[in-house]
Amino acid sequence: xxxxxxxxxxxxxxxxxxxxxxxxxxxxxxxxxxxxxxxxxxxxxxxxxxxxxxxxxxxxxxxxxxxxxxxxxxxxxxxxxxxxxxxxxxxxxxxxxxxxxxxxxxxxxxxxxxxxxxxxxxxxxxxxxxxxxxxxxxxxxxxxxxxxxxxxxxxxxxx
Length: 159
What we know:
The protein is mainly alpha-helical. It has 6 helices and no strands. The chain starts with a helix and ends with a helix.
């Protein structure tokens, strides 16, 4: 019972984190992602490329980093939803897998709709599709690891 509650708490905390990020004002979230992008892209390249070219490149990479963050956040959400829904099961039913993905899609859509009420933000169907793809990949990775682990356990018990 404690494991079940722990998994649920972790899942809810992750969903709260996603909600927190999408609750940030447009300027706040852009400043945060731009700082991360500049750190990754590196100030030393400004000297090599020239400041104008560097700023143009950073702006392009910033957009990529923002979309990558969407994908990664929902990739983890897909894993956590499966981790919670498939707890203690020896078989993975396709119905539960589809339900896990639908839950992730619904959360992504509701999260984007929530951005209507946040200054400087707007909902994007592209982001919902990106989030759905991230969660699907997370679910597929979870299932793959689950199946390999189950096969390993079967082999160990037969030895």
